Task: structure prediction
Amino acid sequence: MNRLVVPCVATLASVVGAPGARAQMAEDKSPGLHGKLALGYSNSRGNTNTLALSGDVFLEYRTEGPWLFDSKFFVLRKEQDEATIEQRYESRLSGNYYWTSEDYGYVRVDWRRDNFGSVREEWIPGAGYGRVVFRNDFHDLKIEVGAGYRFAELADGTQEESPAGTTGLRYTWDLSESAQFYQNLMVQWSPDNTFMESETGLRTKILADISAKLSYLVKRNSSVPEGRANSDFLTIVGVDYAF
Result:
């Protein structure tokens, strides 16, 4: 794993260190379909301890009116000696309605499945309010608050259902013409469990539409079956293609 991480970190550091550069990593805001395709090499710790390939897809469709639709899909899987030892899937579907350039309402469905995690499967449909706190040439910060309903199956087969509240933020900082730092945070509260997910990463352009990416994810459940870990940690080194 170190042989992969060190060259990537060195490349990121050399780009971040470029002083005085005007940031140009901001996402395309024009109407139409945009997205990213990513492939990475993941180091997992927690309920599993493996090295595996991972992939994710982000799609966004901007209308010429107030609606914006986005979706995200993630998969991580590994087989060894003809047996599956790592298997995770995640998806998110959202519809966002902007009544000002800074304020929007959303409806969303989150789905997570981890065949080797403390929470086997989880569905959370919900709705809420989001606001762009600030946005300029270098920084972009959004915060969200919402409510929904949680359906979950734990690793021991226990079924849980309850109302859930959600808060989150998404922050990007364009460090230079070709490097970007990002931080995503989500917390979901319910009477049965509190779920927290944090993603911290660096992205740097290699070519016009291809970037190297280094990210660190933490996923934590407050209530888990006996013998299961509360937290999972993923370090991902990879590349993504933007279109």
